[in-house]
Design brief:
The protein is of the alpha+beta class and 336 residues long. It has two domains: 2-90; 108-333, 2-Layer Sandwich (BirA Bifunctional Protein, domain 2). Helix content is 41%, strand content 20%. It has eleven helices and ten strands. It has helices at 2-18, 24-32, 37-44, 50-90, 108-122, 136-139, 181-189, 230-245, 287-292, 309-317, 330-333, and strands at residues 126-127, 133-135, 158-159, 173-175, 194-203, 215-225, 250-258, 261-270, 276-285, 301-308. A seven-stranded mixed β-sheet has the order 1-5-6-10-9-8-7, with helices on both faces. Strands 2-4-3 form a three-stranded antiparallel β-sheet. β8 and β9 form a beta hairpin. The longest helix has 41 residues, at 50-90. It binds phenylalanine.
């Protein structure tokens, strides 16, 4: 009997060890259930005498306990294997690209910004800057747009309030709507001759679309000296156009209106294919603006221009939607 128990136990243990992991749950019934070989032996214990029954009974209990433990171990193994398989199946590859061979580079707008600076520095300008949070005076008043001037309405101004119950604009503090306030700051900061460009970020209350962003960039130019004329303006725009776009490009001025220049013009650039592109505004600095800058208009004259940097970047690279430049999608950015 003892030998039978031992061999039945060995058989059962071998069955557990070789059982496929997904049938582990059936092992218990098969090896220890009512119809199992070991249970069958238990039924036979009754026919043995007392001493034999005691010895065989305890051997049988031990055998069943060790088979049961082996089944539990096998089940734990099965669960671990299932978990690992699941982790493997659900693993996400979060590496965007191989880490080697990828180098970052300047953003499209920064590239255009720096190229513009380079060209203007080459033409004899120095680079100036002003704050992005401005006062009403610098952004409007000093630029010949006093309170109630209709042109103010064309700039969808974002106001910065000092308190929640203040009406928009009441504090006189705002996000600059153009880089033109740097004209005033430059005039107040230095004696003519002045030759500056001022690139920077500007803000307007605009809903983003393919050609507009509420935050964008402009570059302002200002020249003030004795006897500056419209011819100097046109010549500078032309020299810039050729230096920046190439010798095959030319420029033209078209009459326009800005409160801070008189006369005012739009300047366009002619592409080699003959098409014209509107680039920005310009004109002779208005006498009132010179006065706000602390200069006597009888002694000094000047010209100013301003245009969008984002537009330049978009034009240069044929980007059809200006918003693409600000999504920071690596697949877009990497193309430039
Ligand atoms: N500030 C003007 C604008 O934002 C552009 C401009 C600058 C026009 C300088 C004339 C002179 O539209």
């Amino acid at each position: 009997m003892i030998d039978d128990i031992r061999s039945a136990c060995d058989e059962a243990l071998a069955a557990v060890a070789s059982a496929h992991l997904d049938v582990v749950d059936q092992l218990h019934a098969e090896l220890l259930g009512k119809r199992s070989h070991l249970s069958g032996m238990k039924a036979k214990l009754g026919s043995l005498d007392a001493e034999e029954r005691r010895v065989a009974g305890s051997a049988l209990n031990q055998a069943m306990a060790s088979v049961s433990a082996a089944i539990d171990e096998r089940r734990a193994q099965a669960q671990r294997a299932a978990l690992e398989a699941r982790i493997d199946a659900e693993r996400l590859d979060l590496t965007e690209a191989p880490p080697v061979g990828r180098r970052g580079h300047l953003h499209l707008v920064t590239q255009a910004w720096e190229q513009l600076e380079d060209v203007f520095v080459g033409l004899g300008f120095t680079v100036a800057e002003g704050p992005e949070v401005e006062t009403d005076w610098y952004n409007f008043e000093a630029l010949n747009m006093g309170e109630g001037h209709p042109a103010r309405g064309e700039f969808d101004t974002l106001f910065v309030g000092r308190s929640d119950n203040e009406l928009p604009g009441e504090s006189g503090i705002l996000l600059r709507t153009h880089t033109s306030p740097v004209q005033i700051r430059a005039m107040l900061a230095q004696e003519p001759p002045i030759h500056i460009v001022a690139p920077g970020r500007v803000f307007r209350r605009d809903t983003p679309d393919a050609t507009h962003m509420p935050v964008f960039h402009q570059i302002e130019g200002l020249v003030v000296d004795r006897d500056i004329t419209m011819a100097d303006l046109a010549g500078t725009i032309e020299a810039f156009t050729r230096a920046f776009f190439g010798e095959e490009f030319t420029s033209r001025l078209r009459p326009s209106y800005f409160p801070f220049t008189e006369p005012s013009a739009e300047f366009d650039v002619r592409r080699p294919d003959g098409s014209w592109l509107e680039l920005g505004g310009c004109g002779m600095v208005h006498p009132e603006v010179l006065r706000a800058g602390g200069l006597d208009p009888e002694q000094w004259s000047g010209f100013a221009f301003g245009f969008g940097i984002d537009r330049m970047a978009v034009m240069r690279h044929g980007v059809s939607d200006i918003r693409d430049m600000y999504v920071n999608d690596i697949r877009f950015i990497e193309q430039f």
